[in-house]
Amino acid sequence: MRVRLPPLPLRPGTGPGVAAAALALACAEFVRSGLYGAYLTQASPELLGLPEREAVAVAATAFSAHFLTDTLCRGPAGALIARYGARRVLLAGSALSLAALALLPGVHIGWELILMAAVHALGFAALWPAAMNLTAGAARPGYQGRALTLVSMCVMPMIGAGFLLLGALAPGGTTLVPLLVLGVQALGLIAVLGVPGRGPRLAAAAPTPRRRRMRVAARALAPLLPAALMQTLTLTLLGPLLFTLARELGLDFWGMVVMLVVGGAAAFGSMPLTGRVADRGRARLALVVGYSLIGLALGTIAGTPPVWALYGLAAVAGLGYAFVAPGWAALVAGTLPEAERPAAWGAVMTVENAGTALGPLVGAFAYRHLGTPGPFLVGAVLALLTAGGYTLFRHAFRQDAQPV
């Protein structure tokens, strides 16, 4: 008896190009997460010859400079992709990133490290808009949410691998780590050669004046920007506090790991079904259900339940995320006009990054003033507000995708 596997959510012939873009993005994220999230904070005293506290402050400033530059440049990077095609822009960006990272072994002054991080971000900024736009264009009709989520989920393990591996190699690794970083970044540059110059050709249509096209794009983009901010703000406010909150909820390290595994398994296991809901013209419904489940889970955790209940609540939150990820991908892909999608996607990602930067600050503020329940309570309120916004302003989102 043959087992029939589900079809890939990509149109025939587009898989290699999408895979190349995903590999380039995964390599770049491996480098970024490991370098700024784990390596520099440990190695900066030796690299810069400074006392530990001063060196860590410089490393944190370099991370902020990288993140801010990436945030500000995603919109312009998307516009360049729309004009020159993905391959040219990604080749230039990946080469610039490689050149910046090649300076790492010779960096011994704080401002040099900060400048290197900013130049690295200039090259990095085009990767996410290019990968998402290429995937959306390559997706089979009615499969955009699942295709975009598949690419994002394939990249995520490399983010964790970079953080863990470079963090483990950081003590005494001032020679090995730069070589590893350059090797992985070079692999990403080679992968870009497989990215198509431009996405699939659009169907022939009557010429439209540029000003009118920009007005249409702006109207489609307007409701997505506050939604993008609320989503990343909600989903990132617990991140830096995770170890602290886990202890205060009665979880040890391995208990927290098991809780995360339960949540991840619930998300990955249910995503084929939740993605189908999102891609059948019900992206908003998927988002409303997803954020309602996340709000329910966070609100219940704010009541500090017994430890055994936390694992069930992690599964509820994971199921909520399984609705949110493909729902958001399908909504963005179906709302943005196809001709202006690269630049518009860059603008959406700029706002997403702003929410990612603000989330930890909001979480820390809530923890300081409300204690352990604070971040969960604020997260629950934000999640339910986001779900309510998708319900109240449902007519603001124009969906091009048709049910299948």
TrEMBL record:
Q: Where is the signal peptide?
A: none
GO MF, one example: transmembrane transporter activity
Sequence intervals crossing the membrane: 89-107, 113-135, 147-170, 176-195, 216-241, 253-273, 285-302, 308-331, 343-367, 373-393
Sorted keywords for this record are: Membrane, Transmembrane, Transmembrane helix
Gene source species: Deinococcus aerius
Query: Which residue intervals define the domain Major facilitator superfamily (MFS) profile in the entry?
Result: 220-404
InterPro entries, alphabetized:
MFS, MFS_dom, MFS_trans_sf
Per its UniProt record, what Pfam families does this chain match? MFS_1
What's this protein's name? Major facilitator superfamily transporter
> Is Transmembrane helix among this UniProt entry's keywords?
yes
